[in-house]
Amino acid sequence: MTVERLTQPVLITLALVALAVFALISGLDPVLLGASIIIAAQPLLLAAIGEMVVEKSGVLNLGVEGMMIIGAIAGFAFAVESGSPWVGFLGAALAGAALALVFGVLTQVLLSNQVATGLALTLFGLGLAALIGQPYSGLKPPAFGSLDIPGLSDLPVVGPLFLSHDAVVYFALGLVIAVWLFLGRSRPGMILRAVGENHAAAHALGYNVIAIRLAAIAFGGACAGLGGAYLSLVRVPQWNEGMTAGAGWIALAIVVFGAWKPWRVMLGAYLFGGVTILQLNLQAANLTPLWLLAFGLFLFAIWRTLTSRAGPIELLLLWLGTIALGTWSAAYPISIQAQYLSMTPYLVTIIVLVVMSADRLRANQNAPASLGQVFHKSG
Amino acid sequence: MLILERRPAPSRFLQLATPVLALIATMIAGGILFAFLGKNPVEAIRVIFFDPLFDSYSRSEILVKAAPLVLIATGLAMGFRAGIWNIGAEGQFIIGALTGGAVGLAFYGTDGVWLLPLMALAGALGGCAWAMIPAILKIRFNANEILVSLMLVYVATLLLSAMVSGPLRDPDGFNFPESRQFHDSATLPILMAGTRVHMGILVALGVVVAAYVILARHLLGFQIRLYGQAPRAARFAGVRDHILIATCLGISGALAGLAGLFEAAGPVGQLVPALPAGYGFTAIIVAFLGRLNPLGILLAGLVMALTYIGGETAQFSLQIPAAAISVFQGMLLFFLLAVDVLSTYRLRWQGRRAA
């Protein structure tokens, strides 16, 4: 626990420093970079926080990708037809919840296998979204403006980073707080967690396990729908077939990364938003593999210096190596194919999963005990 | 109210009947969907499900489509039975096509009957190696194989795109992102003149028979079934779960890789970014529709191939969008999972008083 307390702030600071350095080196505005990371993180954050609640109730819904893409097209279609992005977001939440309830009825009432049903939800959702979306490709959605606070939003650095976002960014932050309070500080939240830990015991105490789980599943679907709509209405903003490109699956990994804790899930969403934006900028900046290696070594050197776990000789070697590699990479610019950079979000997901799962005790500490198990009253 | 009551043992009859029930329910729901799209539902269902059966070229195309589906689904079913969820078959399919295809391109212009077996071996090994990534990460670090294998699909897709626009690009191809056409020795022989029915179909049939024997008669099959039903008991009975995980993922990866190579060296004839057509995901539906049984999968693969071929016809004869067919396939899996409850539970009417 103490190690975790120490390393987390260090890691976050490190990431922020690295980000600023990266932005300055490649000639980008660090503030704009930060703002675009916040935008990129929202779809993941919304989907992941919803899925976290679902998993806390003991249900593993692997259909996040399907619910997100349905949210993306439903949000887009409602917004275009009505001319209001608000109607779009509302429609997306409803569509996501409706699709989630299909999963809910199948797994909770008809007792189907949760893994298989979640996969079915994704396959079905991708097909249905493509079918609905045909007339909408190439259209532009109505603009979704940011909520500017007169005076404050014009402040340097703080303004564009924290005070001039659209309503959904603030809503997502509020949602994280609400979920944190609900799960940790309220009685209904405790009942939901009890259902997820031991459904037989919760049933014996008189709680309606199926109804509670159905509610959680619908909530998760609505959140995933909102996340999808944020992609098609704000982040891109356009409708493309298969536009979620694995975001729903990454959201599932973020829940594991976040160890089923709301704030850590939020941290994970921002981490992945950062990775996505960075690799896009790297593609644009035409950086070489050697440069990336030098940059990685640079980060590692900072990490070793800050945690003061290394001796002076190792530190000296590290920093000298960093400088040498950096000079070398500047001298020999050999470009890297864009496809390799596009792989990074997926590779980072795998690395994060491995790191989080490796310590079995810690990984399972917070995981709901009944996760993925079928509940039937006969036991 | 209506309640579900667990059957003492799953009904054998219903286990066989539920896929048929699900198929009928899907046809009805699909008909409603087509009516909603403004098409004549009866005609649409006829074009998709019955017309291809009465046309000899369509029949041969069903075999061409069914081969990769059956190959992949047979491998997946072994894992699914053991509770090991490889859902990244699409990625293993791509890597198999890539490694096997690379061997074919390396010997470009070289004649010899040894070349195709070598390509098939390379493809199977490539797919197997790609599947060993989630296997090793699960065994060593307890990482979820569902998420890891799925993430690797995106990585494989990007790798294929990088390769055909980089090292494997056709030198005379005007910079198009595609490889050379495979030469004759590196292309699967056609079994029936005038069709695309290739050697891979026979291999798929052989794999089905082998898988059936392994699952029903071999110790490995017993261990797979035991581990899927009771992992703890299996461990006590001497099943080494690490080896079982690696075996299941390895076999399914190798078969998916083989299917990928057959697709590249068969109907497609070269490596292109559009090679993966979603077979790896459709095969999941095929595996469930076939009740995770190799013989059932053979039938299910043919039915699913039928919807592909019928769907293609319906696209130009009735202007039904291609996406409608994937909705159709998704619905099929939903209905299958929904009616499946009937084989393990029975419906009973009960008074309001007790639960």
Could you explain how this protein is built, in words?
The complex is a heterodimer of chains A (379) and B (355). Chain A is mainly α. Chain A has 17 helices and no strands. In chain A, helix 3 (64-82) runs antiparallel to helix 4. Chain B is mainly alpha-helical. Chain B has one domain: ABC transporter involved in vitamin B12 uptake, BtuC (Orthogonal Bundle). In chain B, strands 1-2 form a two-stranded antiparallel ribbon.
Q: What structural class do helix, strand and pairing data of chain B support?
A: mainly alpha
Cα-atom radius of gyration of chain A: 22 Å
Strand content of chain A: under 5%
Distance between the first and last residues' Cα of chain B: 10 Å
Helix fraction of chain B by DSSP (H/I, runs of at least 4):
55-70%
- The domain tally of chain A reads 1
Shape of chain A: globular
Q: What do the pLDDT scores of chain B average to?
A: 88
Brief rundown of the structure:
Chain A is mainly alpha-helical and 379 residues long. Chain A has helices at residues 2-25, 30-56, 64-82, 85-109, 114-133, 158-163, 167-185, 187-197, 199-204, 209-235, 247-257, 262-285, 289-307, 312-331, 338-342, 344-358, 360-365.
Please supply descriptive tags for the structure shown above.
heterodimer; A: 379 residues; 75% helix; disordered N terminus; B: 355 residues; mainly alpha; ABC transporter involved in vitamin B12 uptake, BtuC; two-stranded antiparallel sheet; globular
What is the fold's blueprint, element by element?
The complex is a heterodimer of chains A (379) and B (355).
Chain A: H1 2-25, H2 30-56, H3 64-82, H4 85-109, H5 114-133, H6 158-163, H7 167-185, H8 187-197, H9 199-204, H10 209-235, H11 247-257, H12 262-285, H13 289-307, H14 312-331, H15 338-342, H16 344-358, H17 360-365
Chain B: E1 2-6, H1 12-36, H2 41-49, H3 56-81, H4 89-106, H5 115-141, H6 145-164, H7 200-217, H8 219-229, H9 231-236, H10 241-268, H11 279-289, H12 294-318, H13 322-344, E2 345-349
Antiparallel strand pairs in B: 1-2
